[in-house]
Each structure stands twice: as structure tokens, then as C-alpha cells.
Amino acid sequence: MDISIISLIIAGVGIAVTALLLLFARKKISDAHQLLKQAQDKLQSNKQEVENERRESLLKVKDELYRRRTEFEAELKRERAELDRQQSKLSDKYEAIDKKEQDLDATKRELQQKERAISRTEDILRSSEVRLKNTYNDLVSKLERVASMTREDARQSLFDMLRDEVQLSNQKWIQKVEDESKQVAKDQAVQIIVGAMQRYTADQVSIHSSSVVHLPNEEMKGRIIGKEGRNIKSLEMATGMDFVIGETPEIITISGFNPVRREIARRSLERLIIDGRINPTRIEETVQQTEKEIDEVIQEYGKAAILECNLQGVHPEIVTLLGKLHFRTSFSQNVLIHSKEVGIFARMIAQELGLNGDIAMRAGLFHDIGKAVTAEVEGPHAKIGGDIAKRCGEDAIIVNAIAAHHEEVPFNSIYAILVVIADTISASRPGARRETLTAYVKRLEQLEDIALSFEGIKKAYALQAGREVRIIVEEDRLDDDKAAMLARSIAEKVEKEMNFPGQIKINVIREKRAIEYAR
User: Element (H or E) spanning 352, and its range?
Assistant: First the structure.
């Protein structure tokens, strides 16, 4: 019973499932028919769109073909019109060429006629030239007989006369150009140099280091000399200087070539006099202490000079040498102050000329460093200074400017010339230096001897402390033009043989005196 019920139930479930499957299958078949119909409808629609697009494209192609055919026909018409115009232009040119050919033929015939006429004229001229040449030769022969001079002699005489005139005219022109150039250059140089000197103001330089020590009394001389001269010998041994005790009361003179050692000796002696204890041991201690102080002072002066001139990268040896220059004088001028002046003047002039002022300042400040070691090293201080600067790594321009500032080596740059000019300005300022009487007289005599070495000179006088040479020439031997040439020759010789600051005026005087006596 139970089994049959279960079978029936199973059969009912199977029938239900089959019915459900049939319904699902029918639904899928219906959906498939519907999708197929939609696909057919869409295909029909796409075919219609493609057909419409094909028709539109065909119409566009036809329109484009029509437009291009129209443009081509228009372009063809324009080219035909241009071709017709060019053909017409060529026809006109051909006509113009034909006309020119006719004109050329006419001109050619005319030229042939003129050529024949010129040939006839040349024949006439040749015959006339022969007659003139014969006449000229006859006249020359007559002139030679009359003048008693051959043709070559006359030609040479004329050539000599023309050469003298040309030389004199050329000399006058050269003199005029030189005078104008010198005046322009002088005016510009004076403006630059005077401007530099006006921008720099400094007190007159006085003697810095003294070799004379004043004593409080005469008894101090004996204490300085010491028993059997032991004290003074100790001083001389410790300082390397000579202590001269003369008859002048209360004065001891210190003599020596090394300015630094002389300053050490002077300060040591003054300190011993103030201390009052003068014996060999105390002398050695005092000299050693003074040497240390002087070394510090030298460094201070050197560094102060570098800072004042605003220089960078200076070798310590050069700093020391600059400090030593503070204790050295040249013609009563302090060398360190002189070196700073030269640097300042060189920088001012360089800036006026558009050059590097720092290079000029460096070269001017270092130009006399060789003087700091001339007591130990033999040779010109300019070359010594150049060697020191080269050893200390200075630039080649600086080295050459130092070595050449006394013209002992050639100038390699404009800065060397600027240092020479600045050195001359600093040394020639009023009161900067003193010139010995012997050198002064010798310079005047040399000026007069150079002037008298030329022919045709009566007298020569050096005036205005050697700033002018007044020369009186023989008026019968030299005319005015030759006197001007003589002044130029004398000036060139003075420039070549003498060294002098500033300039020297060469004044040549020629005068004619007519003297008669009434009796």
C-alpha cells in the first residue's frame, strides 16, 4: 500500500517536472523566435541604411567630379589666356630685336667711317710728331750749346732741386703733424695725470729713520763705550752696525747699510739709555727683545699696506718686504709711502684708460720690494724685486712691471709703462725728494754738452733747473727750417741719452743782426 502511494507520488512528480520542462522549452523557443525576428528586422534596417549611404556617397562623388571638372576648365582657360599673352609679348620682343639689329648695323657702318677718319688723323699726327720731335731735338741741342750743360746734367740738377723741395716740404708736413699729435697727446696725458694727482692728496714726505741718537749728557758716552770699549763692541757685534762717537756733544751716530738693523740699533741704544743698565749681557737681551718688536712692527706695516690697497692673496714674504720698506728712504723719501703712492697713481691712470686698476695697483705697490733686500743681495733692485715676485707666484704681468720699472728689461705690457709713469709722478712731486748738488750740476752739464755736440751752434744754456735748454745758432749757417729740424734732433738725442722726470724744453733761437757804424 505504501509502495503504490509512493509510486503514484513519484509518477505525479515526474509528470509535473515534465510539464515544467515543456513550459520552459516553449518559452525558450518563443524567445528564440522573437530574437530571430528582431535580428531580421535589424538586418533589414542596416541594409536600408547602407543603401542610403551608398546613394549619398554616389551623389557626393558626382558633385565633386562636377566641381573639379569646372575648376579644371576654368584653370585651362586662364592658362590659355596667359599663353596668348606671353606669345604676344614674345612677338613684341622679336620686333624690338629686329629694330635693334637694324640700329646696330647702322652704328657699325658709322663706326667704320669714324675708324677710317681716325686712321687718317693718326697718320697726320705721326707725321706731325716726327716733325715736333726733330724740332725738340734741335731746340735741346741749341739749349745745350747755350747753357753749356748736357741733357743728363740738366735732368740731374732738376731732380736735385725737386728732391730738396720735396724733402723740405715733407719735413714741414711731418713737423706739423707731429706737433699736432704731440699737442693732442700732451693735453690728454696732462688731463689724466693731473686728474690723478688732484685726486690724491698726501703730506710732504720727511725722513723716517734717523741714524743719530741724542744723549742726556756727556757722561753717557763713557758708559756706552764701557771699560776698554766692551759695551760699544758688544753693541756693534749684536746689531751689526757701527757706532760713531765724534766730537759733537751728546750725539752718537749709527752707520750701516741695512735700514732695519740700523733701526734695531737705534731703538736698542735708546732703550739702554733710558734703562741705565749698560753691560754686554743687558745689551744682548735688549737687542734680542728689540729684534722681536721690529719683526712685529714690520708685519704690522706690511699688513696695513695690503689692507689699505685692498689686495688679496699676497704672499707672506712680500708682506714682510713691504713692512721693511717702512724703514728705508730713497732721496729722503720713505719707500713704503712712495710704493703706496705709485700703486694709487697707477690705479687711477689705469682706470682713466679703461684698464684693470687692481693689476696696476698691485704692480705699483710691489715695484720697489727689491730695495728691502739690496743690503743682502747684489744687483739692481728692480730685477731683484721681479725675481722675488716670480718666486712668490705673482702674475707674469706684475713680474715684468716690477723688473722693468727702471727700463733694465723690455716692457711686456702697458702696466709696466703705467708703473714707470706713476713712479715718476710720486718721485717728482714738489718736496718728495732731494737731489744732490753734484747730480744736479752734472745733469745741467750733460744737457749743454748734448746741445753743443751739433754743428752750427754758438752757445747753449741750461735754464730753469734743467727744464729748458736755450740754444743760439749761427744765423748764416742755418735757416729757419733747419733750425726747426735741429731742435727736433736735439730733443731726440736728449730722450735717448738722458733719464729725467717730466719734460725738457728745447728752445732754438736764430736771429739776424745788422750792425753799422756812423763815423
Answer: helix 335-352
